[in-house]
Amino acid sequence: MAVNHKRAHIAVGTEEGYVCIFEIEHSGGLNFYKTLDKQDGRILSLAWHKDGKIIVTGSTDIIKIWDVDSGHTIDRILVGRAEKQKETLVWCLAITNDFTIISGDSSGRTSFWDLQTTTQISSFQAHSADVLTLSLTDDEERCITSGVDPLLMEFTRVSHSTSKTRKWVKSTQRTSHTHDVRALVFAKNCTISGGIDTYLVFSSSTMLTKHFPKQYSALHLSRSSGHLLLNYKSHVDLWRLGSTELEYGALGKALPLRSKPLHIAQVKAKRGSTFTCAALSDDCKWLACSSLVKVHLYRIQDPDGTIPPVLQKLMRPFTDALVPVTSLLFTADSSKLALISAQCIQIWKLDVTPILIHTFNTISATSSIHLACVSSGHYLATADSR
Fold this sequence. Notes:
CATH superfamily of the largest domain: YVTN repeat-like/Quinoprotein amine dehydrogenase
Number of helices: 0
Distance between the termini: 36 Å
CATH architecture of the largest domain: 7 Propeller
Strand content: over 45%
Helix content: under 10%
Radius of gyration: 28 Å
């Protein structure tokens, strides 16, 4: 899938061998525009030329060049095989303004092709495994590749000493990931990459910054009341835990239950919205959950009584909350709630109308808080990505 230079059309390659083109509306919607001729085999990669009239696609053992207006193939390039019995899969493509095609394939090669003559300019065995992604700088003077071999390999276009032609050469390499790199892009003088190891990495020849994934707890236990909150993206489920007469048993064996766990309530996010975090107070009297734009607070009336219990939603409980909130934490005595965002940490006293009693500003807006612990109300401890 790729968007053209004017961001007016998006092309999508399919498993059936079609290239479908859609118009991008100003509102962000898509309208079907046209389909190019069907080819045998799936489309693995594609790229637009800047003029919007040429598309190149990568498949098994072949690169095809398409005329967008006619919808027909105008030429093709056979990429060749490193091993006779092993297919070469063209996983990624780019095309420069001077009609140079750059391809990365399953043999670990990065190749440069002349679109107008369909001949190979140069090829580099720069990776030990599949090249899955590549990116060009805006001035098209540098190209970077990576993939199953997570090495970030940079190529630079240089002038030839004896002629006016310019050629691509390997320049620098660095390792920023531990597993497959699936996506990368140039931004100013920095490369942004991401992959299987879940790190978002900003790197260059002089710097390296890794952003670790934020991990949310999906389980929230109300220890004193024996309730459990399960946090899903689209909803939260409240359970009453089962009970047993035994205090201990055989190692690794579950204790026999006198009463089974019971699902007693569910709170759903609005359609099109998701919950980023949730929390349950230790006495199971308060339930809080947050989306990207709002924090919701519920008072649970008699959680051990009728099923489902009455959930009283407090209207506009946190008028000064800084969203999006990344973590919600109740104090052990269930009297206060901590709202943690990138900008600050807010402490609210719980009541029918919660009261903001303190705000702690974070040291840096770029560092995310990964851990927070609230004691009985006197201390707050945090650790961030720095």
